[in-house]
Amino acid sequence: KQEVTQIPAALSVPEGENLVLNCSFTDSAIYNLQWFRQDPGKGLTSLLLIQSSQREQTSGRLNASLDKSSGRSTLYIAASQPGDSATYLCAVRGSGGSYIPTFGRGTSLIVHP
Amino acid sequence: GAVVSQHPSRVICKSGTSVKIECRSLDFQATTMFWYRQFPKKSLMLMATSNEGSKATYEQGVEKDKFLINHASLTLSTLTVTSAHPEDSSFYICSAWRDTSYEQYFGPGTRLTVT
Predict the structure, then answer these.
(1) Of A25, B15, B93, B100, which sits 20 to 30 A from A8 (CA to CA)?
(2) Do B102 and A99 touch (CB under 8 A)?
(3) Which helix (H) or strand (E) holds A11?
(4) Do A100 and B49 touch (CB under 8 A)?
């Protein structure tokens, strides 16, 4: 059974810092990995989707990397802003035919001015 | 990007009543939709997979008679919480599976409060 762990659980940083959020998974046989953002009381917004054959994806100040063999993904946020404050969730989809993703518990990020 | 809506966004109901939550894919057809439940500061817990035209597949521990799911069309799935109790209070999120891109698109969620 796939297990997804996100570290740290919570993070508070001053504006402008570069951040790294970590996601690890136990079964490396994945189809893809997706990073989401969730604002309080809201649904999920997809940030980046990395297919199993890819090493990284970039969107603006966000960069996500994938190391399938070691079961790890990182989400890099450059020059953090208060508007980045949210919970970031990592979801892993297995390659065994089921497209139901397994979610981590998220990293709660606060960027203060 | 693809859009998924949920209605209502918030609902308060009395214990013992039933509540229906709608999930719609607005610009694509979704043969499969998912219903999740999220507790405060917890991750998403998959409740069931909703398949258009057939019965939903429930995850272990989720009562199918308690949480009725109907996926009557390619753009609409509904979750009905029957005889709601305070412990059913939670944030319910649906998602729709887009076959063409192998991605899930999430709705904005519904906050259910049972008094």
Answers:
(1) B93
(2) yes
(3) strand A10-14
(4) yes
